[in-house]
Amino acid sequence: MIVRAEFDKLPTTLLDELRQTGLDVGELYDLVETAIDEELPELVPGGMPSEDVTSTATIAPDARGIGDFAVREDGVVCGLGVAAMVFHYVMGDTVEILDRVPDGTRVRAGDVVMRVAGPTRGLLTAERTALNLASHLSGVASATAAWADALEGTGAKVLDTRKTLPSFRRLQKYAVRTGGGVNHRNSLADMALIKDNHVLAAGGVVAAYEAVRSAYPEVPVEVEVDSLDDLRALLEVGCGRVLLDNMPPEQLREAVAITGGRAVLEASGGLTVERAREVAETGVDFISVGALTHSVKVFDIGFDLSEG
Fold it and tell me: Which of 4, 163, 213, 262 is catalytic?
């Protein structure tokens, strides 16, 4: 059963819950709409309205079912509210969310994390889109949680990057927060991050830093360095945040000693979760990990249907 519920027809409790996570629910609705349009474009070749031909052919129109989202591995779930939006978009008020664990819950293989009930055709039409979103976001949250666990007790936090899928940045960064990580900048406008190409264009790290400070005095600035001399130079002019790129642990320890608390230090570059604690124990404040979002493994969630 395909309803394609309008935004203002979605459950207000669900929308309020999603807003409280920091997500833009209007943007999320548009994303869900686009995803369902991929599954069911308005028309198919020949000008006929599209439908889920498999479900329509094999399932009686009055059949009802219950679907369980069951996890196949241990981890942290995220995106179940997003998955619920998919079902409500596709099925309107004919679907009922019987149970759903909160995002951020640590789960074990075999746990049922969400249960939905309604017309069987609609459940199976919405299934894949809901699973794609929840599995991806749970993968990001679970990977982040592994880093957060590795850093526990060190004082360092795992930080994400802008290496996100286009149009998925808010969702992926929400999943990072859900897994216990910290968000870096969300766009090119809310923080300046001076990297090697900017340094080359400006004529040096200090010149680049001062150019940004002059042009945008209210914008936070971070500068990437790969040498201790550049770190010293930036500290002399009052730079408050420095990214230490591809430095081995002994060099990171020296950088922390040189800084003496005068700036926030972020370590980055080819780091692995197995080395996370060694890097954190050098005294850096953050460890940034692009892999949290750009190449994360999806979390294995299945959809098990029964008659209901």
Answer: 163
